[in-house]
Amino acid sequence: DVQLQASGGGLVQPGGSLVLSCAASGFNLANYSVGWFRQAPGKFRDVISCINSPDGSTAYDDSVKGRFTISRDNPKNMVYLQMDSLQPEDTANYYCATDCVLARFRGQGTQVTVSS
Questions:
Q1: For residues 111 and 9, is the Cβ–Cβ distance under 8 A?
Q2: Kind of pairing, strands 110-114 and 10-12?
Q3: DSSP class of residue 108?
């Protein structure tokens, strides 16, 4: 099966950190740019970070720039999102996709809740 799966979400206090993982199976994730998206209830989906293939260049939405770091481990077929200094407004369902615009192929998301 061709699958993409995000994991690593949870409940964290403001100022805390989480690392999200995006795991691919059945295909080589290294051949694709990978975007991290998030969607909060009642809000539009936002692409918050992207890592390109093959050069590995990265991009961030202004809302997360300086706090989130995207990376990839091609031998493990994984992409990660290190999230630091989390704030309540980061609360959303997060998912990864094999593009950075339309999320045409995406996996199930993982919920991140930032609350004290």
A1: yes
A2: parallel
A3: B
HSE toward the beta carbon, residue 105, CA cutoff 13 A: 13
Please report the pLDDT score of residue 107 as a whole number: 86
Whole-number Å distance between alpha carbons of 113 and 25 = 27
The dihedral through the CA atoms of 19, 25, 31, 37 has a sign that is negative
Amino acid, res. 89: E
Question: Backbone phi, then psi, for 90, in 5-degree steps?
Answer: -85, -5
* Distance, CA of 106 to CA of 47 (rounded, Å): 12
Do residues 45 and 39 lie in contact, with contact meaning Cβ atoms separated by under 8 Å?
yes
Query: pLDDT tens digit string along 67-91?
Result: 999 999 999 999 999 999 999 999 9
The sign of the CA dihedral 86, 68, 47, 75 is negative
Which residue in 20, 31, 13, 33 sits closest to 69, CA to CA?
20
